[in-house]
Amino acid sequence: SQQGEEDPQALSIQEGENATMNCSYKTSINNLQWYRQNSGRGLVHLILIRSNEREKHSGRLRVTLDTSKKSSSLLITASRAADTASYFCATDREGAQKLVFGQGTRLTINP
Amino acid sequence: DGGITQSPKYLFRKEGQNVTLSCEQNLNHDAMYWYRQDPGQGLRLIYYSQIVNDFQKGDIAEGYSVSREKKESFPLTVTSAQKNPTAFYLCASSITGTSGYEQYFGPGTRLTVT
Predict the structure, then answer these.
(1) In 3D, which of A106, A105, A109, A39 has the Cα closest to residue A72?
(2) Which of A43, A69, B55, B114 is 20 to 30 A (C-alpha) from B71?
């Protein structure tokens, strides 16, 4: 069953602009992770945020988590062409040791 | 170089044949996972293993089988019972199967069955 759902499904912006992707989930979680996937490749881990954290930063990435709304957002600032990829959120249900991935947001950065 | 490898990158098979996808890691990770990805979709968990000689079914295990005889290896067999095997298969590993650890992914194997 799909736990996380990303929104929007596709996003196209100009280089230099900020990109925001959202993820909603249904049940209580321990952690939420964001991954990036370049076309036809494996996934690369970006950031993990725990259920007791509200915000986390890593370089140009900012992730927020609102457990009351069961949602998270990923902000990429000052986007670059190399940021073009699909971005997935993944949640682990409380008591479970496996990740459940959303369907992803396909991000295109136009030069 | 530490990492997780999958081979081959592309695999073609005739309907009715079993096929085994390779996944090897030298990260000394206890947990390993197999996912299936269909075009434009997210990842769905097929099987996972938290320790050698032990594995559990994921959400879509029917038509697949695995073994975990060595810590570094977690091969996936796609059997003829899998109704729609054409997909992109991703293997991953993590330090443990405990919640809260990132997963490291291999480059994937694209399987086409005709």
Answers:
(1) A105
(2) A43
Q: Exposure string (b/e) for A51-64, b if CB count within 10 Å is 16 or more?
A: beeeebeeeebbbb
DSSP chain A: ---EEEE-SEEEEETTS-EEEEEEESS-EEEEEEEEE-TTS-EEEEEEEETT-SEEEETTEEEEEETTTTEEEEEE-S--GGG-EEEEEEEEETT--SEEE---EEEEEE-
Split at pLDDT 50, 70, 90, the class of A3 is low
Single-letter residue type at B22 = S
Contact B108, B87 (CB under 8 A): no
Taking residues A30-45, what's their average pLDDT? Answer: 95
> What is the end-to-end Cα distance of chain B in Å, rounded?
36
pLDDT digits (tens, 9 = 90+) for B62-105: 999 999 999 999 999 999 999 999 999 999 999 988 878 899 99
Q: Which of B81, B107, B86, B96 is nearest to B36 (CA)?
A: B86
Question: Which of A4, A30, A98 lies at the smallest CB-CB distance from B45?
Answer: A98
